[in-house]
Design brief:
By secondary structure, this protein is an alpha+beta fold. The protein has five helices and five strands, in the order βββαββαααα. The longest helix is centred in the last third of the chain and has 22 residues.
Length: 159
């Protein structure tokens, strides 16, 4: 899977801590850069209530600049990435027989029902998910759309 750049906060502060998540099966899953205020988002991203502070390290400048808080480099396969979005921000009820495309469709339908500002973006994401199938290029495009929707969602909340 190609790397997808995500912005999980709207925080303008430079990151001071970096953490990564690995899998024995998939290798590097993600790298996230966070400020002191948002450092606890790493635990939600990891799907746990706690990330050992020893697993974080000081952020290193990239091209002479510190990355912005909330910058996430996502290397996950599409199903894991959708789960990650669901943990961080996406109101995506699970339990569908359609896997990650069904989860995204449910999120879009719920957003439309509650008239969420995310409804239009999530409708586009659900449409892309329905068409993506097993095509890695289409899945990458879907994850880019989802990352853009996530960044817009964070901006709305000022998170």
């Amino acid at each position: 899977m190609q790397t997808v750049l995500r912005q999980i906060t709207a925080c303008p502060q430079p990151a001071i801590r970096t953490t990564t998540r690995h899998s024995r099966v998939h290798g590097l899953l993600w790298t996230v850069h966070l400020c002191q205020r948002h450092r606890k988002l790493a635990a939600r991203l990891a799907g746990t209530g706690y990330v050992d502070s020893r697993r974080t390290r000081p952020t290193v400048p990239v091209d002479g600049k510190m990355p912005r808080c909330g910058t996430l480099l996502d290397h996950q396969p599409v199903a894991l990435a959708v789960d990650s979005h669901a943990r961080i921000w996406l109101n995506a009820p699970g339990g569908t027989v359609d896997g990650w495309p069904g989860r995204l469709r449910n999120a879009a339908e719920l957003a439309a029902y509650i008239q969420s500002p995310d409804a239009a973006a999530l409708a586009g994401v659900a449409e892309a998910a329905a068409a993506a199938g097993d095509d890695p290029s289409a899945q990458h495009h879907l994850l880019l759309l989802l990352a853009r929707a996530e960044a817009a969602h964070g901006e709305q909340l000022g998170r």
